[in-house]
Structures are given as structure tokens and as C-alpha cells.
Amino acid sequence: MLAGHTDVVPPGDESAWxxxxxxxxxxDGVIYGRGAVDMKGAIACKLAAVLDHLAxxxxxxxxxxxxxxxxxxxxxxxxxxxxxxxxxxxxxKFDHCILGEPTNPDALGDMIKIGRRGSLNGTLTVEGTQxxxxxxALADNPVRGIVAxxxxxxxxxxxxxxxxxxxxxxxxTSVDVGNKTVNIxxxxxxxxxxxxxxxxxxxxxxxxxxxxxxxxxxxxxIRWSIAWDPSNVDVFxxxxxxxxxxxxxxxxxxxxxxxxxxxxxxxxxxxxIKDHCPVIEFGLANQTMHKVDERVPAADLxxxxxxxxxxxERYFGT
Length: 318
Ligand SMILES: [Zn+2]
Known about the structure:
By secondary structure, the chain is of the alpha/beta class. It is built from 7 helices and 17 strands. It has helices at 40-57, 80-89, 142-155, 203-218, 242-255, 270-273, 298-316; strands spanning 2-5, 26-27, 30-32, 66-69, 97-99, 111-113, 115-116, 118-127, 131-132, 169-176, 184-185, 188-197, 223-228, 236-237, 260-262, 279-281, 295-297.
């Protein structure tokens, strides 16, 4: 299965672009446009590779499918999830998937993604008692409590990483009291945080770990709670093996470079595909994704097409 999304992020201020964001202008061998690398470019390469492969080798021993979706850059409700469900209801089964997200930090051949971290968002709330700032004994300042609990949650690393993943990480993204006055001790304090976690944890395990740290730090003195946002971003890993070797070998053959196997970066629709078959990601270089003047050298499209074609040849043994 060759997968990709056709939706794109907005262009932002179109006057900041040197070429119109939806014209696909070719200038000096470079194609400009929103989605050039993330990721209409890779979809075009996959289509071209399959057409070339069928023309040269005839009907494959097996089948080739495209999972071309939308709603990837947003909440991911009306895209890959629904399409995979529809395919499963029809009895479709998939052996392997290559998702064409732009995976290379600098140049084609740098990096294959073989997994992604999980992501969880939470809100830590500490309840206090409102009162006069000059009479703290009559109040209970939740700012003291939330500072203690935030320190506790951040104090220790969540782990030291694993064979294929960086250490899990927690970042506080906002701390809010919302108090506009100078002489009131507020009633409540909140802090938002995000956790990117590796394959040493499952989603519920991360939650339990945070709850335990908060409970220990609170020690019955601080009134606290953590509310977790719903999440569909679980950690996954496609273990290195014959399929990863096949793709890495094809990349090396065309580019002369040995791609790094990585689980870094943000999330992708691979998190849904992994429930159906092993999935890895390889696409274009990603320096300009989501930026003004998103662009791709036409030569990279030709090379990526050659890589996908080589993958098909290796996969079907032709
Ligand atoms: Zn993308």
C-alpha cells in the first residue's frame, strides 16, 4: 500500500510567496507550491513509479493499492481512519505500507521513519482558597501548590530512551491563574502540558506515572487533579527487518546514501495504518514544509520516483 494525504496547511500571507502557492510554478528547476513536499510531490512520485513499474513488468504478483486521503493536517477524523475502516469492511488486507511523508532533514536519502512517539496532552489543576493577599493564613494560594507539582512532574526524566527512540519528554506549554488583581490570592491555578513518549510506555502507563508523581509531591496537602485530553496518538515501532532493509536498500541504490532509521518528529497517519500492517515512511526533504515558498527540486521528484520504483521491483522480485 502506498499512502499519502492531499490536504495541505494554509499558505498564510500569499503576498509573502515569491510564486503563487497554488500555481505549481517551475522556476530554475524548482517547483513552488503549498504541498510540494508535504505531500503532493510524493503522491505524484508514487503514481509515476507504479505506472512505470506496470509498463515495464506487467501485472505484479500481488496487488498495489493507494491510500490517498485528506484530513491529515487537521483532526484526522475524515481521512485515513475512515478509509481504512471502509477497506477493512470490504475484506481488504494489506501486507506492507509506505507512507510518503517528507522524512529527510536535508537531502533525499537521509532518513526513513520506522515509528513515531506517542503524544498526550494534560491539564494540571490545583485548587486553593481565595483570599486577601495580606492575610495569607486565611487563604490557600494554589500558585505554591502548582509550582511544587510542576517541579515534581519535571524533576526526573521519564526514561532514558530505548533502542529506537529518544527519551520521552514532558513540556509545560502554559501556566494560567487568570488573576488580574494584585491583592487577591487566586482560587485556582492551571498548567497545560504535552508528553511525547516512547515505546517504554503505553498511554495509560504514562498517565499513571504522572498521577503518581503528582500524588507523592502533593502529599495530601495540595488539592490537585489532572485532566487528560482524548488522544489517538499512540507510540508505534515497525521493527527493523526484511521490509525496512528492502526500502533502505532501494534508497541507497538510487541516492548512494544509507538512510538513518528514525522515530523522531511529529505524528502522522502511520499511527492509524500500523493497526493494519507494518508501515514505514519515506518521502521528500522536509526543510520547506508548512513554510512560505514551500518548494521541491524537480530532480528530487525524479529521484524519489526512481526510489519508489526500485522498491516495487525489489518487493515483487522483478
Ligand atoms: Zn504531511
